[in-house]
């Protein structure tokens, strides 16, 4: 496995791979890799000759009250994991190279970013779309793999990929969960053991919603009420940011559950903001 830190070297390496007729898969990450990321790398390996895993804690997607410096990092551990998972290139650009002095060009997706995470974190997606567009330009992937856990991010980036005409196949891989159901996330490491046990309340609420739908319920308002009850019961201190029922691709709100409806939620548990989602049918 190669580790590349320079944008120029990455561009040259990608150009050479394309010239040799090799296909490239990109897995963009912010590091502190867990099983969820490794499953994305595994999927990428099935899709292309060369797998590039980028690690870049993107300052532009953190809000002023979100602590960029507190974001967990473990470069050495990450490189080991990428190698073991079969990644070919780890790309770790420097913030000053991605956002050089005087940087002022941004990529924005207008409508899909107005709801859910976008409503709570106003500049977040502008940072995500800009950095991912830059990563696309630098690494020239044929395929890109994102996780379903950040389902709005996937919808926004799919839109950007189509709108800007990138010839990139877009794969969204399923969320990987801990044995008790908690979605894998780099943020889980902020919890103590007892707090960690409460963090499973998001998954429990989604499961209770799924049970209701299985029993025949289709009305969003009733399901939402039950989810709020389930969260308050298993995690009294939790602050619910939103519980939403939206269409998988358009993110338009649903009143009744249909096949394409995704239930997503953001909940702060012991000062850690968690997100999760599930298809209910
Ligand atoms: O999902 C993430 O880790 C980030 O938002 C991404 C896509 C790597 C962009 O910084």
Q: What is the CATH topology of the largest domain?
A: Rossmann fold
What count of helical segments does DSSP give? 10
> Largest sheet at a glance?
6 strands, parallel
How far apart are the termini? 41 Å
- Strand order, largest beta sheet: 1-4-3-2-5-6
Report on the architecture of this protein:
This protein has 281 residues and is of the alpha/beta class. It has two domains: 2-173, Rossmann fold (3-Layer(aba) Sandwich), CATH 3.40.50.620; 186-279, 2-Layer Sandwich (Pantoate--beta-alanine Ligase, Chain: A,domain 2), CATH 3.30.1300. The chain is 39% helix and 19% strand. It contains ten helices and nine strands. It has helices at 7-19, 35-47, 75-85, 95-98, 116-120, 124-139, 151-163, 193-198, 201-214, 220-234, and strands at 2-4, 24-29, 50-55, 89-91, 143-147, 169-173, 239-247, 261-269, 272-279. It has a six-stranded parallel β-sheet, with helices on both faces. The chain has a three-stranded antiparallel β-sheet with strand order 7-8-9. Strand 5, helix 7 and strand 6 (169-173) form a beta-alpha-beta unit. Helix 9 packs antiparallel against helix 10. Pantoate (PAF) is lined by residues 28-30, 58, 61, 128, 131-132, 150, 153.
Q: Which short descriptors sum up this protein?
A:
281 residues; alpha/beta; Rossmann fold; Pantoate--beta-alanine Ligase, Chain: A,domain 2; 2 domains; six-stranded parallel β-sheet; three-stranded antiparallel β-sheet; globular; binds pantoate
């Amino acid at each position: 496995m190669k580790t590349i830190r320079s944008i120029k070297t990455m561009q040259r390496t990608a150009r050479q791979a394309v010239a040799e007729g090799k296909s490239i898969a990109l897995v963009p990450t912010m590091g502190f890799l867990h099983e969820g990321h490794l499953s994305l790398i595994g999927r990428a390996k099935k899709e292309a000759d060369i797998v590039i895993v980028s690690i870049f804690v993107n300052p532009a997607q953190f809000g002023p009250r979100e602590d960029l410096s507190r974001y967990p990092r473990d470069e050495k551990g990450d490189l080991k994991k990428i190698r073991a998972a079969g990644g070919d290139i780890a790309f770790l650009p420097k913030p000053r190279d991605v956002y050089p002095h005087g940087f002022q060009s941004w990529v924005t997706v207008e409508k899909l970013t107005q709801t859910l995470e976008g409503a709570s974190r106003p500049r977040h997606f502008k940072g995500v779309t800009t950095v991912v567009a830059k990563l696309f330009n630098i690494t020239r992937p044929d395929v890109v793999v994102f996780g379903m856990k950040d389902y709005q991010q996937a919808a926004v980036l799919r839109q950007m990929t189509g709108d800007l005409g990138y010839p990139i196949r877009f794969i969204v891989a399923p969320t990987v969960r801990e044995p008790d159901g908690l979605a894998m996330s780099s943020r889980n490491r902020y919890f103590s053991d007892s707090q960690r046990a409460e963090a499973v309340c998001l998954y429990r609420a989604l499961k209770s919603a799924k049970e209701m739908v299985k029993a025949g319920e289709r009305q969003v308002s009733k399901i939402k009420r039950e989810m709020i009850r389930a969260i308050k019961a298993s995690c009294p201190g939790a602050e619910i940011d939103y519980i939403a029922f939206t269409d998988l691709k358009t993110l338009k709100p649903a009143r009744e559950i249909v096949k394409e409806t995704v239930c997503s939620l953001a909940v702060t548990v012991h000062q850690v903001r968690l997100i999760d989602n599930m298809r209910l049918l």
